[in-house]
């Protein structure tokens, strides 16, 4: 090039894409030896088995009503598949029995109860390792008794 400006348009840097500001997540939620669940601290939580039954009931109700033609989204399908795979209790009677058993347990947060019903630990040591916040709330003997009761409602071939 001979030092003269070119007739070709120059490449310019595109301006930054303008987007809405994203709310910062503080990340102070923690399920360690002390439960720090932030805004979810006093919220009722469900086991995977309860969530599975709830979604089935909603979909069954929806199928009978005016919204029957609403299709299932990819997220809903994946959630149903996940819950079908990992829900420990498939029969409604067993889900209800475990829920009643866990509701009778005093001193445990809803989150801890739902974790016990979802994880179905075999030993109190395993439960206290996976759910550290229950370590000081239940003796090993009491926790083992609860875990044994939960296991009674589990059927391994359904």
Automatic annotation (TrEMBL):
GO terms for biological process: DNA-templated transcription initiation. Keywords: Nucleus. The keyword Chaperone does not apply. It is found in: Nucleus. GO terms for molecular function: nucleotide binding. GO terms for cellular component: nucleus; RNA polymerase complex. Residues 38-157 form the RNA polymerase Rpb4/RPC9 core domain. PANTHER family: DNA-DIRECTED RNA POLYMERASE II. Belongs to the eukaryotic RPB4 RNA polymerase subunit family. This is RNA polymerase Rpb4/RPC9 core domain-containing protein. It comes from Arthrobotrys oligospora (strain ATCC 24927 / CBS 115.81 / DSM 1491).
């Amino acid at each position: 090039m001979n030092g003269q400006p070119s007739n070709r348009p120059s490449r310019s840097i595109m301006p930054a894409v303008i987007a809405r500001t994203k709310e910062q997540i503080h990340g102070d939620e923690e399920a360690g030896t002390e439960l720090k669940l932030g805004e979810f601290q006093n919220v009722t939580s469900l086991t995977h088995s309860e969530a599975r039954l709830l979604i089935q009931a909603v979909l069954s109700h929806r199928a009978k009503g005016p919204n029957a033609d609403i299709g299932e989204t990819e997220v809903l399908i994946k959630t149903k598949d996940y819950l079908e795979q990992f829900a420990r209790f498939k029969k409604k009677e067993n889900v209800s029995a475990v829920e009643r058993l866990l509701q009778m347990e005093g001193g445990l947060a809803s989150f801890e109860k739902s974790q016990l019903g979802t994880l179905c630990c075999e030993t109190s040591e395993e439960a206290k390792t996976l759910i550290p916040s229950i370590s000081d709330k239940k003796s090993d003997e009491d926790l083992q008794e609860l875990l044994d009761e939960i296991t009674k409602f589990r059927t391994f071939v359904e």
